[in-house]
Amino acid sequence: MQQIEVVVIGAGAAGLMCAAQAGYRGRQVAVVDMGKKPGRKILISGGGRCNFTNENASPANYLCKNPHFVKSCLSRYTQHDFIELVDRHGLAYHHKTLGQLFCDNSAQDIVDILLTECDWAGVSLHLRQEVLAVEHQADGRYLVKTTTQTFNCESVVIAAGGLTMPKLGATPIGYKIAEQFGLTVLPTTAALVPFTLHDHDKARFDGLSGISVDSLVTSASGIQFRENILFTHRGLSGPAILQISSFWKAGEFVSINLLPDLDVQAQLHDWRSEQGQKSLRNLLSTILPKRFVEALISDGSIPDKNANQLSHTEIEKLTETLTSWKIKPNGTEGYRTAEVTLGGVDTDELSSKTFEAKKQKGLYFIGEVTDVTGWLGGYNFQYAWSSGWACGQAC
Ligand SMILES: Cc1cc2nc3c(=O)[nH]c(=O)nc-3n(C[C@H](O)[C@H](O)[C@H](O)COP(=O)(O)OP(=O)(O)OC[C@H]3O[C@@H](n4cnc5c(N)ncnc54)[C@H](O)[C@@H]3O)c2cc1C
């Protein structure tokens, strides 16, 4: 049995950040992970280039039952603090759209920075060990039992992530430990995830795979995102769809404005008076992907006519179709392809300063296992850094 002060379960973004911080405070820290490598989700993130933070991150970019919790956490270790850290390590990175920061070379650079920090802070890393159980002892210390050893420690930090990408080692251990100690776990669901379509819609959009359209997507509750939607062979994806999936509930429609920068009604009237002999097919194909226009003509959403044959009613109806195109997803692709897990350990159970469980001294929860979910765009890693940093000052 190894005696140690702190065991961090999970060598992901939150766990590594926390471990380094605790190590710098002079704590003896062991990080345990079942994977062969640390930071496996970091490595696959952002198409291998890791969108490691967002310059504009603010509490408004997160879903959480208690928004004050997120505010407190983000204000203590901000995106600017993380940017300062990567600058100190000489990371080469670039700005993409909407404040997103990506590595120039590879996500491995972010993992290397975290491992260097852990190394400097004297943290020991124990890979290929699945944590099976955490037990609280009469003397107030904990036993962390893995497939190969047992740690006896003062503090346990649960940084075991959510349920997404089971093939990358996602397990429900974090939620189970929370429940074991009587903490509320809010229902979980896959978020930032592509939609699947009902068979009739799949048939309608067969052949559109790979087409993307810059759109304004609106949820049933009125949340909006302006980015691309992408047709796939399974359904709908693309950044705007991933974003709206976090707000979508089964059975709801999403509404898609396919031409958000255009006064569509005025354009249709102009075409009718100025280019009346041209077909709608050809006119609309100048502003939308041709194959998509064909699909909407085939299913009757767009009349197969010349512009001067459109009645006022048809112009109104077509405007509605193009600016408020309604899709009712069949479901989502689920945890297999989702980027994050919505829900998790209720933040009301945790100190917003230290992430310690209010009713269980020495037990901490950070990162995705908690009920904090960011939008797409580097916000989830920022929460992992912020929560890991805060916990590292206390555990
Ligand atoms: C494909 C993809 C792309 C993404 N891209 C981005 C992006 O570009 N920007 C962004 O901000 N976010 C992105 N995310 C989300 C981001 O990866 C997560 O929010 C973040 O990794 C959460 O960090 P974490 O430390 O809480 O959990 P994780 O990174 O999931 O780490 C948890 C660790 O715990 C370990 N573990 C679990 N159970 C056990 C157990 N029983 N015993 C031992 N170890 C265990 C796992 O092996 C894992 O290493 C992406 C996610 C995916 C899936």
From TrEMBL:
Question: By its UniProt entry, which InterPro entries does this protein fall under?
Answer: BaiN-like, BaiN-like_dom_sf, FAD/NAD-bd_sf, RsdA/BaiN/AoA(So)-like_dom, RsdA/BaiN/AoA(So)_Rossmann
Q: Which cofactor does it need?
A: FAD
The residue ranges of the RsdA/BaiN/AoA(So)-like insert domain are 190-340
Q: Which ranges carry the RsdA/BaiN/AoA(So)-like Rossmann fold-like domain?
A: 5-393
Q: In the UniProt record, does the keyword Flavoprotein occur?
A: yes
Would the keyword NADP turn up in this protein's UniProt record? no
The UniProt transmembrane annotation reads: none
Q: Which Pfam families match?
A: HI0933_like (PF03486), HI0933_like_1st (PF22780)
Keywords in UniProt for this one? FAD, Flavoprotein
PANTHER family, alphabetized: OS12G0638800 PROTEIN
Question: Mind telling me what this protein is named?
Answer: NAD(P)/FAD-dependent oxidoreductase
